[in-house]
């Protein structure tokens, strides 16, 4: 087998491993499996940024330790909400040491919907698996906030938070 073909196959394997890790993220949060999230999705030194959190606040949340990740994701209950992704793109660099992921998402729950974009940087773990080293959840619309203290004017769009999107994704105006 030629070196070029081996490299192309390795990149395809990397893309699939990144997609698998991305799907594990959804499975973990939709099933309230925080240990799966911590152990199989994120690196030990992962940095997560969640824009507009708590929903409707316009604040940006930085999670840079396992304890902070557990504090935010741990209380999420498997109560019928579902996270759906579309238009997912995975770009693996030429030397197969890093991958960039972008994907639009919609989260559906009984009291409302939320949507936006995920952007992440994934790295190989040396055993064929990949994990997220940096994760941005850019909440761009949604959540009916009738049962919370946070208020957003209809149609639930707001000025983009300061973190924006890292790869030029859509930001509502």
Number of helices: 3
Number of domains: 1
**Overall pLDDT metric:** 80
Low-confidence stretches: 150-165, 168-173
Protein architecture, described:
The chain has 173 residues and is of the alpha+beta class. The protein has one domain (3-142): Nuclear Transport Factor 2, Chain: A (Roll). 25% of the residues lie in helices and 36% in strands. The protein has helices at 3-30, 34-41, 66-73; strands spanning 42-51, 60-63, 82-92, 99-109, 112-124, 130-142. The protein has a six-stranded mixed sheet with strand order 2-1-6-5-4-3. A hairpin with a 6-residue loop joins strand 3 and strand 4. The longest helix is centred in the first third of the chain and has 28 residues, at 3-30. Mean pLDDT is 80; it is low at 150-165 and 168-173.
């Amino acid at each position: 087998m030629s070196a070029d073909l081996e490299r192309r196959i390795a990149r395809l394997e990397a893309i699939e491993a990144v997609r698998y890790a991305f799907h594990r993220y959804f499975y973990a949060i939709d099933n309230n499996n925080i240990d799966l999230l911590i152990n199989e999705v994120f690196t030990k030194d992962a940095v997560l940024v969640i824009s507009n959190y708590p929903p409707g606040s316009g604040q940006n949340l930085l999670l840079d330790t396992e304890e902070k990740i557990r504090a935010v994701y741990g209380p999420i209950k498997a109560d019928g909400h579902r996270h759906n992704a579309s238009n997912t793109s995975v770009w693996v660099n030429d030397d197969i040491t890093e991958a960039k992921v972008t994907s639009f998402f919609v989260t559906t729950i009984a009291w409302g919907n939320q949507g936006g974009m995920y952007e992440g940087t994934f790295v190989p773990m040396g055993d064929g698996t990949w994990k997220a080293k940096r994760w941005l959840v850019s909440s761009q619309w949604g959540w009916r906030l009738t049962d919370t203290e946070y208020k957003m004017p209809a149609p639930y769009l707001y000025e983009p938070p300061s973190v924006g999107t890292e790869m030029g994704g859509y930001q509502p105006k």
